[in-house]
From TrEMBL:
Protein name: AraC family transcriptional regulator
Signal peptide from the UniProt entry: none
Positions of the HTH araC/xylS-type domain: 206-304
Record keywords, A-Z: DNA-binding, Transcription, Transcription regulation
One Pfam family linked to the record: Cupin_6
Keyword RNA-binding: no
Length: 316
């Protein structure tokens, strides 16, 4: 069986960017323009407020806490909610655009934040972002926060060095950070009403999800999936839609098309071969389904690829 989270992460074509630690003190506030799909950060020392578009209440992140800001939304980190914010680029970069090795804001030093940011394929991003709230809080007292914080701190150490294998280490650690954060959120119950991520932890619905992800070419039927979930057909259909937010047919269609989209971008296989790999014997039927889900034909998707708009700056 295939873990749905692992499969979705492969479809996202994740690109990680590691940020240098931010040192802050006194009264301070930094505004981020929100050009990253997810930013994951740990409060190594001190504390700060996190405010973000789409979240009604500010989050107080204390020492040892971790948090994620989800989606390309504007957000703000600050010592207090009244201090005017300076743009992140003014903190992280010199006027000539050179990246600062030790960004600082405010006066003195009582707070240190370390984190990593991630961007995804623009078409596949909703698969994950659609099941997460604007801000995810992983408090220090949770067991997962300690492991996540340790990985983020290790990332910060690697950023400041120039050891053998540094780039490979940063890539792998940033992937671990994202996986740890998502797993912590799901297993803490935060994803209980958040689509496939929460549903994948359900012993019965999760079994059906793993079966679908393991063999997308198979012509799955509701009776077969219900059997895997050890439920009646009617109960399974109802429970699946309630948990995932889509019918089994709609869900597997989306995953098939996003899997095909990745193959179109990253392989030289023919459209017919890719269609067969996700369960379509007819190239024309596949093309109709692909355009319905992805908004453009397989050929056009292959030519255009997946547009990105992240720019060169980490502090975004």
């Amino acid at each position: 069986m295939v873990d749905p989270l692992e499969h979705v992460l492969t479809l996202l074509s994740v690109e990680g960017m590691v940020g240098v630690p931010l040192h802050a003190g006194g009264r301070w506030a930094v505004a981020f323009s929100g050009r990253l799909d997810i930013r994951c950060e740990a409060v190594v020392e001190g504390a700060c407020w996190v405010t973000a578009e789409g979240r009604d209440e500010p989050l107080r992140a204390e020492q040892g806490d971790c948090y994620l800001v989800v989606g390309r939304r504007h957000y703000r980190l600050c010592s207090d909610l009244e201090t005017p914010a300076v743009p992140a680029n003014a903190v992280y970069r010199d006027p000539d655009g050179t990246r600062r090795p030790h960004p600082r804001v405010g006066t003195g030093h009582d707070t240190t934040l370390v984190g990593a940011g991630f961007t995804f394929d623009v078409h596949a991003a909703p698969l994950l972002l659609g099941v997460l709230p604007p801000v995810v809080h992983i408090p220090a007292e949770s067991g997962d926060a300690a492991a996540l914080r340790a990985t983020i701190i290790l990332l910060g150490t690697e950023v400041g060095g120039d050891r053998l294998g540094r780039a490979a280490m940063l890539n792998r650690l940033s992937a671990v950070v994202l996986l740890q954060a998502l797993r912590a959120y799901a297993e803490a119950g935060g994803a209980a009403t958040s689509g496939w991520l929460g549903a994948s932890l359900d012993p019965q619905i999760g079994a059906a999800l793993r079966a679908m992800h393991a063999d997308l070419a198979y012509p799955w039927s509701v009776p077969e999936l219900a059997g895997i979930a050890r439920m009646s057909r009617s109960t399974f259909s109802l429970r699946f839609k309630e948990a995932v937010g889509a019918s089994p047919a709609d869900y597997v269609l989306r995953v098939r098309m996003h899997t095909a989209a990745r193959a179109l971008r990253e392989s030289g296989r023919t459209v017919a071969s890719i269609a067969a790999g996700v369960g379509y014997g007819s190239e024309s039927a596949f093309s109709v389904a692909f355009k319905r889900v992805m908004g453009r034909s397989p050929g056009r998707h292959r030519v255009l690829g997946a547009p990105r708009d992240i720019g060169p700056a980490w502090a975004s």
